[in-house]
Amino acid sequence: MWKSGKSPGSRRQCFSIVHQYIQHFNEVSGNKSAAIRRRSKTPGVMITQYVVNLPEGKTTPDFQSKPMPVEVKEGQLAVFKAIVTGDPKPEVSWRRTKGNILNKNKFLSKYDESTGEHILEIRKVTTEEADTYKCLAVNEFGKAVCTTTLNLTEDLKNPADFRKLLRRSKAGKKTPNGESDDKFWEAMLNADRSDYERICAEFGITDIQSIVKQLAEKKKERKQKNFTDGEIPYDEDLSEKNGFKSRRRTKDYGINGPMQKDAWQNKVDEEVNRLFSELKFAKLDFVIKIQEIKAEENDDALFECVLTHPLPKISWMGKGSELEDGEKYSITVSDHQLIHSLLIKDCTLLDKGIYSVVAGNASCSAWLVVEERDPASTGKKTVRSGTLNGGGRIDLEKLAKEQQLKNQEEMEKILAAVKEKYKEELLKDGKILAAGSDGEISEDTGPGKNSGEIKSKSKGKKGKVKFKISGENGTETELDDSDGQLTGDDPTHQKCTRSGQMDFDKVTGENEDSEVNKDSTGSTRRPGQKKKAQRKQRTSDQNELESENEESDSNDCEDSTGQVKHSSSSKKRQRSKKAMNDQNELESENEESDSDDCEDSTGQVKHSSSSKKRQRSKKAMNEGESVGPQDTECEDTEDATDSVTKSRRKKRQGPLIEDTVIDPGVHFVCGLSDVSAIIHETAELTCRLSSEDCDGVWYRDGKKISPDDNFTISKNGAIHKLVIISCTEEHSGKYRFEADGRKTEAMINVKDPPRFDHEDLRVFIEPLTVKTGHNAIFKLHFVGHEPIKIQWYKEGDELQDDNNTRIEKSASHSRLLLSRCQRKDTGEIKIKLKNEHGFIEAISQLTVLDKPTPPQGPAEVTESSAMCIEFRWRPPKDDGGSPVINYILERQQVGRNTWKKLGEIPGVPSYRDNDVDHGRKYCYHIRAVTAEGLSDIMETDDMQAGTLAFPGPPSPPKVISAYDDCINISWDSPSNKGGSRILGYILEKRKKGSNLWTVVNALDELIKEKKYAVKDVVAGMEYEFRVTAINLSGAGENSSPSEFVFARDPKKPPGKVLNLKVTETSYSHIALTWTKPEDKPEIQDEAKGYFVEIRPAEDIEWSRCNTTILITTSYNVKGLKSMGMYWLRVIATNDGGDSTPAELANYVLAMPSPVRPKFTNHKMKSFMVVRAGNSVRITVNFEASPQPKIIWLKDNVPVTKRVTVSNSDGTSQLLIPSSERSDTGIYSILVKNLAGQETFSTEVRVTDDPKPPGSVELEENVPGTITMIWEPSPDEKRDDRLHYIVSKLDSTKRTWTTVAERLFNNKFTVCNIMLGREYNFRIYAKNDMGVSAPSESPTWGMERKKEKFVVNIPTREDRDLRCAPTFLVPLKLHTAPKGYECYMSCAVKGDPKPRITWYRNHISLNTNTNYYISDTCGVCSMLILRVGPKDMGEYTISAENALGRAECSTVLSVRE
After folding, report:
1. Is the pLDDT of residue 542 over 50?
2. pLDDT exceeding 90 applies to what percent of the chain?
3. What is the pLDDT of residue 1347?
4. Alpha helices in 241-336 (DSSP H)
5. Exposed, middle or buried: residue 195 (CB in 10 Å: 0-12, 13-18, 19+)?
6. DSSP 438-462
7. CA atoms within 13 A on the CB side of 655
8. Highest mean pLDDT of the ranges 247-251, 411-415, 834-838
9. Per residue in 1093-1122, pLDDT tens?
10. E strand intervals along 963-1104
11. Distances (CA, A) of 436 to 61, 249, 350, 363
12. Residues 6 or more apart whose Cβ sits within 8 Å of residue 778
């Protein structure tokens, strides 16, 4: 099968002449075996193309999205989805490996038009449905195939279940078996490694690993078998290790050890592969990096990059995670693996971010910026790319091609360097034959007279090869093979061009001076030239045989597509028995066969080989002459998947005798195909050879076929045909055709399906007509292989034996009897015969005749007057199989009992009764008459005759045209005609300003038509007209008068209005003004009025805004849709017609002039305190145009659903009906439109009256001071603004005084406590809502009792009370809200009194007026009134006297 490929410089498909010739033959013969197979860009999809050149705009089917494997639990629903492309639209079908999907209750295949998906649903999945499924998309140009799997998952709890699952998984790995086993292994043995997965999928094989192992064993067996049969084994795996293409491969063969690759060549290959791999990954970088992309919402974003070296896959990263190919992201790689792309579909704001790509050790990244789409934009969805600014995809391809050339140059440099390295090792081997396209090819036979030299040089990159042949006499022949043309150095320099068909000429020559052939010029020519290439050789002894070389050179031919094909042959020469007896010494004979690589358009290599046997006669041996080839056998083996087969050569020691180019032989252009034949009919087998001069032999089951009464063998050029005149079951079997050593096989399967007797079938298909109550009989004879299943159908329903139906069946005929047929039995009768070889059907029609059904009513009165009644009805619903001939009518006057026969009328369902009395009512009976009888009666409703019914008024007359002497008018007939036809019309006219109507036409000259030309007019006068309809009853009502019209020649239409513009816009109206057109006599007359027309942007039709003519030059278009886009135009009009419309240049938006949002209420509060449970209401007034988008946020997050937002024109309100403490936060409103945006924030604090603090404890750490410690209020954690107030009651004052406020900690020290007094303290909790109840402290101290004053003078002793400073109470950590005060205190003792110094961040604060510092009785304190961020830091207090120094530190934190 041929494959399509891509040439380096073009993406279109190119095929050689041979491809096109074979394709044309297969199209003519109806064989599609030469279809083109290629891979899809979607992994796992194989496309088969039926034609070489696709018509313009047409494509083969392909899968945009293939079905993914599914794992479900048993009993659930499994769904496969696929999206298919192709033109024309492909037909999609589903198949499975183990069975069919015909059960509609289990399998449902459908197509979703909204998504374009083809869906296969499998309901209530069981283990039987676990299988491999195949999806096929087919149109007339090709097909696409992909596979997927359905697996079952189950919860395993018992260990035994796991063992069952293991056994099931092993059993589920399908291996080839049955009839397809040979075809499968044949395809796998001849396939490339990259095609293994596809072939396994086509045969339903799932266990690929075991197949690969078995394949390796089969390849070894085949090599051993070929070696045993005389063929040289070929190691395909070893050859595939070489990383270069066939044109870069170098093969060196030593003379010693034929067909064995030298060790130095292995070293060269390994060294080149290693160096190139290291170079590839060391220098891997980006030629073009991904660029930043700016896209709008719903656009596609395309990142592209170009690598320095090919890489099949790179990693794409987005926001820190790796991206995978799917519905959102599409990751693609070019054919040369240098251009990598990432397509992000339907971009959203969430896709904004940094995207990276990693290739080896190199990486790059770029931003994707996604912006909101402009609502006014109506553009289509586009693909945004970061590389389009630089020239687009074409530039990337150009850069990739240049990079490919650079890589190729690097490879050539590496190859040259490695060969230079191993040059010494090459020379050590002596005689070496090197073949390659990048180096020099030579064969050295060593010193001696008979030595010759062949050199080949390959230069450039286009396959130019030069060969040099050196002879003993010093002559050199240089051959240049460039692009399939081979030229010698002779003066003529004649060239030969090959296209499509290969032509080989045998090169022979005669030697005048010796026994061997040689050529004085040494020139050798390729096919198409009629020159002889001769080589010089010497014979040392007539009685001694010399070694003979048989050589087949690779013949490179280039077809029209620039692809090279090769052929090879091997020649065997044998000496006769007599010649061998005469020889005293036998020398070895070597065979040499060159396998020439045939590369088709896909870049794959094919090989063919041929063998020729040559015999020398006794006389030729004695005379030393070379006898040419006498018998040639050609054998061509073609790989099923166009895989690569390597060539091998046998080398010999000794001089080269002859170099001859041999024809590859005859091969099959088109082989045999399997045929299914019908018994006793003709069967035909056809094949086509590449040559018309070759005969062949036909075989059946291994036995030769000769022409006789049953077989006809014919040959028409290269086409060979075998015809079986009358097939029998004995003719089934395998047929083979052999020609020149080639063969092709096919199967003929003779079947015996059911068949009808032609005469019976002709009678059967004729429609059968019977009358009601009669019998209908159908009978058919048939033949076919038994058993035959017989089925009869009526209108698609199968018939069974019953009272009215009887079916007779036998081996040769069947009979159907329908008894007492009724009209309902009319319909299609079908017989179906089926056996194991096929089925056949025949269809006939049965018509049962009966009397017709009654005519259908109700009867419709078309005319009723004093003289006649005309009415009509509908024909019978069923005419009984015969047409209606007549109708029989009877009439009865209402009130009488008698019926009057009116007779028969023709088969037209209408009647006019002229014999009626004025004012009487009548009833009619109607019967239908056919050939089968009379129908039942249809009775009409009562019909009255003779009532006076006058017609209604016609429509007001319309003026068609007006001239000085004539006015043409028209009108419509009245909707109410009074029950009878209109006889005519009376037209009247009246001058403007007059009350007198004048009849235009006489009463006896009624106007029959609905138009009239009034000629009795005076030029310049203005008239109006009215019309009256007349029927059988008389004249009806007058119509309304027409518009006034002047009796004058038509006026010229006015000109185009000027200066049309928009003066004002709003959400519901647009105001227009314009200037009236100019008055130009004989060109354009004055405008009588104006019409304003409007067209919404989404419509294509214009509609008028005003129905009456507008006199003014301004108009206000109302009732518009807010923010709608409208086109407007104005048309001037007069009696001469309408002017050309004057249209605005651009569409107009129904919106006021753009105004940037701004807030109008400048007294809005930025801080609110609300008691918990009360409502929170924030009202914001603003101005903006157009209507803005309003967004409310709480702490930069959209508000929850419990918050109600109400928006109206210029106002937005946020409402929380019942607030909670959790509603505390900063509420922001964002007002945004096209002109800009504005925001405003309000802090809302939801709180309640605080609860009192806990118990209070009093301590005295320093004499004269009291330290109070209390438990915090329960609300302290929920309210960061809650603080404490301390009050003191002195027993001497009896009044409460506040000693401290705004305390944010739970401790306070009161100074100046006097001994002998009682103190009480109260602690209050306070927040923004109020003050809590107090927490009472225990009473401190007691009154001192008055005692008698006694002075005791103690003995005075001097004591040293001095001590170094120490801190009794250290500083504590403080955290204060911003804007509040902070109070720090500590207690220190020391004697003498220490000097106190405060520091912040090691900077003294004693002189800083922003801090209030005090030192009372050893209690040191510092107060910060308004804490800010600048006050944060480390605070240190230092106490120092003559005896020492002490420090204490704390840290102040400020929270927002």
Report:
1. no
2. 27
3. 59
4. 263-282
5. buried
6. SSEEEEE--SSTT--EEEEEEETTT
7. 21
8. 834-838
9. 999 988 889 999 998 999 999 999 999 998
10. 967-970, 982-991, 998-999, 1011-1014, 1022-1031, 1034-1038, 1045-1046, 1058-1065, 1070-1075, 1089-1096, 1103-1104
11. 42, 6, 57, 38
12. 764, 768, 792, 815, 816, 829, 831, 844
Name the one residue in this structure whose structure tokens are 């602690």.
Answer: 1323
Q: What is the DSSP letter of 338?
A: -
Q: What residue type is 607 in one-letter code?
A: H
Find all residues with CB under 8 Å of 545, minimum gap 6, and list them: 575, 579, 583, 585, 586, 587, 621
Q: Are 140 and 59 in contact (CB under 8 A)?
A: no
User: What is the Cα–Cα distance from 1070 to 1058, expressed in whole angstroms?
Assistant: 18
Q: Where residue 121 falls among pLDDT bands split at 50, 70, 90?
A: very high
Among left, alpha and beta (phi > 0; psi -120 to 50; other), residue 450 is: alpha
Question: Do residues 1318 and 1288 touch, judged by C-beta distance below 8 A?
Answer: no
pLDDT (tens digit per residue) in 401-460? 888 888 888 888 877 777 777 665 555 544 333 333 333 333 343 433 333 333 333 333
Lowest mean pLDDT among 138-142, 375-379, 843-847, 1188-1192: 375-379
Indicate left, alpha or beta for 820 from its phi (over 0: left) and psi (-120 to 50: alpha).
Answer: left
- Measured CA to CA, the distance from residue 226 to residue 902 in angstroms comes to 105
Pairing of strands 742-751, 321-322: unpaired
Short-list 1452, 1436, 1448, 1127, CA closest to 1304: 1452
Which residues, 6+ apart, have CB-to-CB distance to 394 below 8 Å? none
Amino acid at 1445: R
Work out the burial of residue 815: count CB atoms within 10 Å of its CB; fewer than 13 is exposed, 13-18 middle, 19 or more buried.
middle
736 close to 699: Cβ distance less than 8 angstroms: yes
Contact predicate 527/502, CB 8 Å: yes
DSSP 117-134: EEEEEE-S--GGG-SEEE
Of 617 and 1356, the one with more pLDDT: 1356
Burial 500-514 (b: 16+ CB within 10 A, else e): eebebbebebebeee
| Measured CA distances, 1451 to 1309, 1377, 1409 (Å) | 20, 14, 20
Peptide bond into 88 cis (omega under 30): yes
Query: What is the C-alpha separation between 127 and 169, in angstroms, rounded?
Result: 12
As given in the structure block, the two tokens for residue 1313 are: 């406590």
What angle in degrees, to the nearest 10, is found between the helix axes of 263-282 and 393-421? Answer: 140
End-to-end Cα distance, the chain: 79
Residue owning tokens 């009984």? 880
Candidate from 80-84, 525-529, 1030-1034, 1367-1371 with smallest mean pLDDT: 525-529
Tokens matching residue 28: 């003519």
- Cβ 37 vs Cβ 45: under 8 Å: no
Task: Give the sign of the dihedral formed by CA 533, CA 538, CA 539, CA 545.
Answer: negative
